[in-house]
Structures are given as C-alpha cells and as structure tokens.
Amino acid sequence: xxxxxxxxxxxxxxxxxxxxxxxxxxxxxxxxxxxxxxxxxxxxxxxxxxxxxxxxxxxxxxxxxxxxxxxxxxxxxxxxxxxxxxxxxxxxxxxxxxxxxxxxxxxxxxxxxxxxxxxxxxxxxxxxxxxxxxxxxxxxxxxxxxxxxxxxxxxxxxxxxxxxxxxxxxxxxxxxxxxxxxxxxxxxxxxxxxxxxxxxxxxxxxxxxxxxxxxxxxxxxxxxxxxxxxxxxxxxxxxxxxxxxxxxxxxxxxxxxxxxxxxxxxxxxxxxxxxxxxxxxxxxxxxxxxxxxxxxxxxxxxxxxxxxxxxxxxxxxxxxxxxxxxxxxxxxxxxxxxxxxxxxxxxxxxxxxxxxxxxxxxxxxxxxxxxxxxxxxxxxxx
Amino acid sequence: xxxxxxxxxxxxxxxxxxxxxxxxxxxxxxxxxxxxxxxxxxxxxxxxxxxxxxxxxxxxxxxxxxxxxxxxxxxxxxxxxxxxxxxxxxxxxxxxxxxxxxxxxxxxxxxxxxxxxxxxxxxxxxxxxxxxxxxxxxxxxxxxxxxxxxxxxxxxxxxxxxxxxxxxxxxxxxxxxxxxxxxxxxxxxxxxxxxxxxxxxxxxxxxxxxxxxxxxxxxxxxxxxxxxxxxxxxxxxxxxxxxxxxxxxxxxxxxxxxxxxxxxxxxxxxxx
Amino acid sequence: xxxxxxxxxxxxxxxxxxxxxxxxxxxxxxxxxxxxxxxxxxxxxxxxxxxxxxxxxxxxxxxxxxxxxxxxxxxxxxxxxxxxxxxxxxxxxxxxxxxxxxxxxxxxxxxxxxxxxxxxxxxxxxxxxxxxxxxxxxxxxxxxxxxxxxxxxxxxxxxxxxxxxxxxxxxxxxxxxxxxxxxxxxxxxxxxxxxxxxxxxxxxxxxxxxxxxxxxxxxxxxxxxxxxxxxxxxxxxxxxxxxxxxxxxxxxxxxxxxxxxxxxxxxxxxxxxxxxxxxxxxxxxxxxxxxxxxxxxxxxxxxxxxxxxxx
Amino acid sequence: xxxxxxxxxxxxxxxxxxxxxxxxxxxxxxxxxxxxxxxxxxxxxxxxxxxxxxxxxxxxxxxxxxxxxxxxxxxxxxxxxxxxxxxxxxxxxxxxxxxxxxxxxxxxxxxxxxxxxxxxxxxxxxxxxxxxxxxxxxxxxxxxxxxxxxxxxxxxxxxxxxxxxxxxxxxxxxxxxxxxxxxxxxxxxxxxxxxxxxxxxxxxxxxxxxxxxxxxxxxxxxxxxxxxxxxxxxxxxxxxxxxxxxxxxxxxxxxxxxxxxxxxxxxxxxxxxxxxxxxxxxxxxxxxxxxxxxxxxxxxxxxxxxxxxxxxxxxxxxxxxxxxxxxxxxxxxxxxxxxxxxxxxxxxxxxxxxxxxxxxxxxxxxxxxxxxxxxxxxxxxxxxxxxxxxxxxxxxxxxxxxxxxxxxxxxxxxxxxxxxxxxxxxxxxxxx
Lengths: 382, 272, 311, 432
Known about the structure:
The structure holds four protein chains of four kinds. Helix content of chain B is 42%, strand content 20%.
C-alpha cells in the first residue's frame, strides 16, 4: 500500500523532473509562451490572456555555452549567459515574448540583448518599482500592470477581461496554497519530503498551465501523507541564494546529505505572494496591492519594511532552524552584498552559518561537500 | 644580397626568421622562453642568422612582434602579433580570410579583407584569458609533456564535459574528474573540446569566412586541429611553419621597409 | 596495544599516520596521489604498516580524510580535513584559535574553540584562487622546482608587487614582469607576499583570533612562513618536524582513537570497516535526482494523461 | 555682467574646473559646523534641484570613490573593504566607499567626509540601492529610493499627453512629494517653490551651454577629449548643478571652446582618428589609457558617459519650466531617465548616431569589471553595431578604480593592433 504510494510518488516526481528541467520552447508550443526572467512576474495576467507564462531559470549544468560568451561581459552571472545561449541556439525559438525586470543591472540588459537578437519576440522590461514605500507605489504598479495587460492584448488580438483575470487569480491562489502546504511539510517533517523533491514539484509548475500544476501538487500532497519515513539526525538549516540563478540539483543534494533544509528561497518568485489575492473588486488592483503589501523578500527588491537581517532572523525562527547556509551565485552582486550583511547579523546572534558560492553550470561538488560536511560535523560536535 | 629579420618574442617561446629579398625563409630558430626576454631575443636572432649562414651586417631591417616586442633592443620597428600573424597567414595561404591563433597569453581571431588587410579582430575576454594555457594546466595535472597531450586525447572514447572557461577552475575540474576515476584520455579530450568551443565562438565573433588559417604552436596538436575543423565545419589551413607565422609576418613587414629603402641602424651595435 | 590509522587522501599527496593509544606516532607514510586516489591510499596504507612493522590485523580502526576520504573502501569512518586539522592542531598547540592551510587547490582558514571544535571556516573565493599551485606554476615559468621556491625567494631584495587576485591574471603579470626584465627571485617573492596577503585576509574573515598555526605543505616553505608572520605581526605555530604535511592524517587518527575509546567505554564492539559515516554525513541513501535521466521528452499537455496512469 | 568669481579668473577651464571641484570638496569639511544638512546622492537621477532648494550640502559618493582612484589611493581603500568581507566581484565604487567608512571618513583629498542626514538612491543603477542599504546599516539613516521608470525597450516612447507619460510622471511626482516631506522633516524648513524655480533656471542655463559644448566636439580637430578634459567639465556640472557658479563656469568653458574651434585648435596636435568611447573611465589609469590612444593621434570627441553621468537632460534637449517648478521637475526627470539614464540597456542606436554626428572612425568599448550597469551587454552591443553599421570597434576591459584589473601589456597590445587596423583601412581608402 505505502509501497505503491511511494512508487506512484516516484513516477510523479519523474514527470516533474522532466518538466522542471525542460528548456525547449518549440515553434508549435501551445498554449503560446511568454518567457520571463526572475524573480517575480504577475503570471495571472499572462494566464488570463490564454498564454503560458514560462519562468526562465537558466540552462543548468547540462547545456554547453558556445554562442553567448561572445555577447556577454566577463564578469556576469551564469544565468544571463545560459539564458542568452538558449535564445541564440534556438532552444527558445517558440517563445512569443521575453520580459525582464529591474532586479539587477545584468537582468535589465537581458531585455536589450533579447531585443537586438530576437526582433520577432516582444522583448521588454516590466518595470516593477524599487520603491515599495510611497503612497503612490500601488497606483504605479497598477499602471504598469495595465500596460502589460494591453501589450498582451495586442499580442493575442483581443482584450483581457477582468473576469478572465479574476479566474486566473483563483487558480493561482490555490496553487500558492498548495505550495505553502508543501513547504509546511518540509518545515514540520523534513524527512518526509526532501528539498530536491519539493524543488522539482514547484519548478514543474513553470512549464505548465497552473490548473495542471495544481493537479500534480494535490496528487503529491496526497501521496506524501502515505510515505514511510526514516527519521535521521541532521541539523536543521535554512538555505538562501536560490531566488534567481538556480543551484544545481547536485548542490542541494550535497547539502541535504548532511543537513535538513527546513526553509529556503529557491524559486521564491513562484510563491512571491504570501497570502490569497482578493478575488473580488478590480483584479489588477488586487494583484498590484498584493505585490506591495503581501509579498516575500529577496536581495533584489528594496522595501524599507523588510530589512534583510530581520527577515532572515524571522525565517530562522519560523522554520525552527539552528543554522543558516547563505549562498550567492558567482558574480551576483545583490546576493554578495547581502551575504556579508547577513553574516554579520548571524555573528551578532551567535547563529552558526556557512557561506557558499555557486554557479548553475558547476559540475564538481567535492569541495562543496567538504565544506558542508565540516559544517555539519561542527554542528553535531556541539 | 640583402636580408631581413622577423623576431617573435612570446610568453613561452621566442622565434626568429631570416627572409631573403623574395621573402623566402632562409633561416629560422625557436627557443623556449628563459627568464630574460631581451637576451632570449638576441640568442634566437643569432641562431636564425647561423641557420641562414649569414651575419648580422647582412640584415637590412628587423621587425619585432609578440609580447616581448619592446624587449628586442635591436628591433627597428614593433608590430603587434595580430598584424604579423595575419600577414604571415596570408603569405602562406593567399585565400585566407580568417586567422586563428591560440597563444599562451591571448587567443586571437582575425578577419582578413580582400587585399589581405586586417578588417577586425577579437581576443578572448579576461575570464577566458590564456585558453591556450588550458593545455598547460592539463600537462601539469597529468604530469605529461605538452607534445603527448594531442595523441593521448585521440584515444578518448567517452570525453568528459569541461564547463568552465577559466583556467584555474579547469585545473580543479580535471583533478576532480581524474579522482572520480575518469580515464586521462577522456579528460584530455574534454579539455580539447572546451578549447575548441571557445576558439570557435571567438572566430564567430569576427565572422567565420573561409579560408581559415590556424597559426601558432598549438596548431601542431592534431587533436585540436581535428576538433576545430569539426566545430567550424570546414577545413583549416595549417602550415608546417605555423608556429613561425608571427615571425614570418614580422619579416615581411621588415621586407616592406627594406624595399622602401629604410636601413637598420641598431643591428650592428646590438650584436657586436 | 591498540593501533589507529589516519589516512589523508589529498589532491596532490596521500598521507598516513599510525598512532597507538598513548597518541605516539608508530609510523608515517606519504605518496603522490596521482590520479588514482583509491590505489594511492591502499599503497600508502601498506607503506604505513611496513614503516611501523605491523600487520593489518593489528590495526583496530581506520579513519580517512581529505577529498578522497570516500574512496578508501577499508575505512571505518571518514571526516573532513578541516575537522582533522582542528583536532591535530589543538593537540599540538592548545592555545591556537586560527588555523591556516594553504593547499594545492585552495586556501582554508579555520577558527577553533578551546576543545578543538571548528567554529568557523572560510575557503578562498573562487576568483582568488591564488594557491600553492599558482606558486608552483610561477616557479616553472622561472625554471625553478617547487623545492627551490623558498630558499630562492629569500634572496629577494626588492620583491615586485603582484596585485591580481585571479591566478590567471597574476600569471600574466609574472610574464609581463619577466618581459620587463625583473629578477626571478623578486618575482617569486612577490608571488609569495601576494599569496600571504590573501591568506591573512581569509584569516580575518574567520575573526583572526590568536594564536595562529600554519598546517599543510606550505610549512616547508620558509619564505612563505616569514611572509605570513610579517603580515600577521605574530608568530605562526608549525606542526612538529615532519608532521606538517601529515597534520590532517594525524587529526584523523586522533579522531579514530576518540571513537574507539567511546565505543569501548560504551562496551560496544568495533564495527567492521566499510565507512559508516558519522551522523549520517555523506551517506547517500536517498535517490539522486541529479543523476536521473528522462528517457523521452514529455510535452506539458501530456501530463494529465500521465497522471491518470499514476493515480 | 555678473559678479566676478576669482576661482575662474585667468585660468583655462580645466584648471578652473579642478579649483571648483576642490572648493566644493573643502566646503564639505565644515558642512555640519555651518549647520548645513548633508545629502548623499548619485550622478544618475538624484533630484538635486529639491535638495538645493533646501540648501543641503551634497556628497557624491561616486565622486569620492573615483577620486580615490585619481589620487592613486584606491588600492588601499579596496583592500580595507575586502578585509571587511566584501567580495572582489562587488562594484569597486561601493568598496572604496566602504573603505572610507572604515577610515573614519578620512578621504585622500584631505576632506573629512560628513555623515549623511539623507541618502537618495535612484533605481537607474541597482547597485545604488544595495549601496544605500549599506549606509542604512552603517549610518542608521533610512535610504530614500527614487524609482525612475526608464525605457521599456529600445524604441519605446511615451508621447506627451499619453496615458503612459501621465502614469510615469505621476509616479515620479508622487515620490518627489515624499522626498519634500522627508526634507522638511529633516531640515525643519518649509519647501520653497521660488527657490526651486531659481535652481531650475540655473540648471536650464548650464544644460543649454553643456549641449553646445558637447556639439563643439563635432568639429575636426576636436577642441577637447571627452574622456579626459571632459571628465573635469562634467564633474563641475554635477557638483555645482543648479548654482550661479555652475553657470559662470559653463560660460567660461563655452567661450574657451568656441575660441578653440574658431582657431582650429585641437586637443591632439595631429588628430588622425576620431573615436566614440562607450563605458565608464578607469580613473586609476585614465591618463595612461588616453595616452595610449593619443600617441596614435586618436581622440574621443564623444562618449556616452558624458550623457548618462551628467544627469541625462542633454539627451533629449529638455528643459525645466520654472513657472511650474515641481510638476516640471517630475516631467523632465522622467524624460531624462527614459532617454539619457536608462540608455545603457538599449544604447546601440544612440552610439551609431553619435558616431555619425561626431564623424567618428570607430567605437571603443571599455568593459568595466565591477560595473554590470555599463558592461553586461557591451559585447552584444559591439556585435550589433559593427555588423549593422560596419564600424571598426575595439573592446578592452579593466575597472573603474581597481588597479588589479588593469593589465597594461594586454591593453596596449589591443590598442596598438586596433590602430594598425585603422591605418590599413585609411591606406586602402586613399588607394581606392
């Protein structure tokens, strides 16, 4: 019985793995695809247009970067490189649009690179604000969302009705609730659901219409309840640094060999909105307001209400973690700046932490394993 | 009978050639770099003279190229190796439109115009600096002489994938793969493929136009030649004197000057 | 008499130490790891037994360390080199709080507490990989062997500045200095000073708490030791003669000894070799999704059907 | 005739400019003793007009940092920041500034930099915001992030009167009102519209002259080198923006350049090649870099830097309407952000246009190690411009002020080769 459930769960996870790490957007892809660069994107508006939002999380460590190196400066992170490569080598040729946001200077350049190289795709910046603290902020986000709405309407050749957006909000609210449940398991019973498994389940959603993803998540949550677990003695840690460029699966596995990751910011854009978006009233306003008042945090969004050190301490408290692993992707300036501030804060709080640097394209993890094990050993020797 | 000289002082080797009035190579010499580039240049020049069987007075003009070009005290003129490799390649293969040179310090792709002039060139960006040194790193990690790397790589059956563009990380990667028990030939082939890929992207940067001529010492590595032909999808011109191309180009520039009636003033002092 | 072996399988050298219950060194062995660490470990272990004049049967426990720690099938347990260095250094110098290890591939700084537990550690930033290997390469440009580096560098009167963080740029700097006709000893000494500077910076990142110790191969390089002490303005403890390179193996053996004592105290049998990892560290019972390859591509629209199959 | 300004008397514009810069720096020493509030601002999108209206003393941390480079002190300041824990990959301006904080604000210019009462970070460079967060933690003052909506894509336009133009202007105006409230609270003074109008009149005049001054370099030979003398001129434009001294200086500069053009005097004795510079300077080696070009008779008549680092008003020839100072400030700031400041991301057409306007023989791209704002897509930009417009281009890499990323041999090699290419082209052009 439980064995069958386990087998079914594995089959489900294999599907998710295939979807999650799938880069291709072929010409005949249907529904048509609008790609966006991390972190957050108001997918509901794209969904309501009958298109499929497609989160671009780089090429991973399986693709070979041949063309993009000639287009991008030396000291720029891997996700910009590999995403450009996927464009130049035709992997994303079926994409109808590309959106980047002002999360960092490199990301803003992606819109320019895309516009120069792929004139047939709509390539734009969605200018989400870096000032979340003005009385005028919500109105501006609202206006920018309305701009997006009309750009997409032109793309599909018909207006996008409030009703349609409201329906999408409904689907996404459920999706976010299911993701919160998943993370609840990771926090309360980490042996039941590994971070890699949770990761694959969440990332699969970036390759599906959300209603299909909801089916998968419901199924997974059901199967997980029947799972047999062997509790193991591993330190509980939170993981930071996965909000944009994605650490390779090997890296997450290397960490979980020695620790339980009980909370993280992996794919944080997928659960950026922390509570249900109101399903009545003007749906675009509801989305804008949720972005400003009910959203997560990352090194690339400034909000005076969310000092990074405080947010980390809150995360550690709520996850009942004893230590933190704060990573940064190579050349990711926002993460590197925060990494130092967070380290100083953790020193002050006397909370053990491990600092790691990664690249999505890395393939050897020996040195990382040594560091993670040493860290775990130092925690277990307490 | 008047002669000219081309001296190419690179980071790992010094090369010298003597050309006659028709631009034929009548003497050549190659030296592994020693701690003083200036004296290396003088020694390689002396050896080249000896192999040509002439003495310094017979040399009308000398052009120096390569990173050490300003260390060549007896040089009458300095020209960068970009122009020199282009000139040498075109002399060897007149239909050359693209030149690739893998050097110790820089890898260069050069686009040649219809009249043999340099139209555009690209060099590796900083983080891919010394792609040529990948091989040095490999020989360091595998404790094998450079000359044996190519042949061994050819034996590969399942090459590993080297993802990094950085020589430093590459070394760690090699050691990692070897530690995991991958066979040296497969790791080596992986290295060669990584280099070939990077060079190809550099060539594309200047626009890949046939014919392509491959110059510099690495062109003697048959594994590399085979791979480059594969990734570029066209044959490469490789001269038996490929590693002298810079020096020969320098010699040809010297010949222009000699023909224009300019005469060296510095050779005698430097040598006597 | 009880014997415990510690084997440190490093990227360049594999080292082994045999301790008895009095923590006295009964034997040591060192070999180049080459690119077959497992084989090297086995060979080194034989050398070790030979050097101590004992048989396999007489050895109670084997602890491995270094990046090849999992590649030794006959081990009882494995532990990382940092934890080993901490234990060994604390054993030799109880007052040391900050340890520096300059290896072939990376630089490590470790802060330990009074009981020799690792409290914080940092490895060099990838782009600051100016490591032992960089020094060896510089030496080769200058036609020197690794052994000559120290003595040769000490001759330098006005060391040249090598500012690049990146080893590749630094190598170019070396070449350009050569092109400029600078004396080799001044260049190699410049490289040493640069490397010392980066090492001390790393030590600062873990708090730079005195006293300080240097472990690993670099202990054999007098110029490097001098440069580090100059930068620190404080003396460096070096592991006892002959043990510098063996520090990791020594620590592994100490830990092995500690384990055996614990097991005996609890009246438990010594387990058979086969590398059960401490606290589950490093064991991989879980499925490796990173290694799993989908056999055929699945288009998103196929998924609901697929779900029907599973549910 | 205006009142005399002794610093401007009897010297050339470059010297006068350096004097003004030093005078401004020196004045910062005593700002707090004078009871003057201090604001930290950046060169791209800073609402200086409002701060002047409240009589803030202005500190430009970017200028402080580049000055550590100019004064060859950057290495030690960077080392301090990296010892403190900053990665080598972080913007070297940020690190030099952290180095300054760790040195009790003792700046190599001899000035003790005052602590900020207010810090404004615009969104024109994301690092500004991370930088401001460092101040929040270090000085304990809340940052004011001024979010300026720029271009959405290369040919994006928001025509006057369009819904889009209104939306963006409304957003900027709203934030300027927040800023005014913040200033009133800090200074205890009420906002003075007339004072703002006066400042704007000065800025208008300075920008009018600046646009001419840029245009003077369309002449052959070019009267000044954008990336050497031009940097000093722009320094004054930033530090004395919206002041009477600033206007006087621009007049002096204008006269000098007009005269040089009239007499056909060029910056480079024998100007042979005219090149557009794209990217920021490497202040620690700028003289050397320029010398490597000028030794071949190469001059930079224009550089995109002189637009985006100068406030961007010149980019669209836009001016304030002092009769409605605040509304106009919002409108113009929005346009400047769109056309001037957010231009890095889509600058291919602008560069090609500059090459045309300034009769350039090629474009030099200077990739900056630690500045992704200018450097990320330069190689792609170069690809586009050289294939699309057949312009010879050169790509070199170093850093703003980090001497470790300047490799003289490599850079000289590339520049020499580039001029050999230009020579060959010229030869062939004459031959045919």
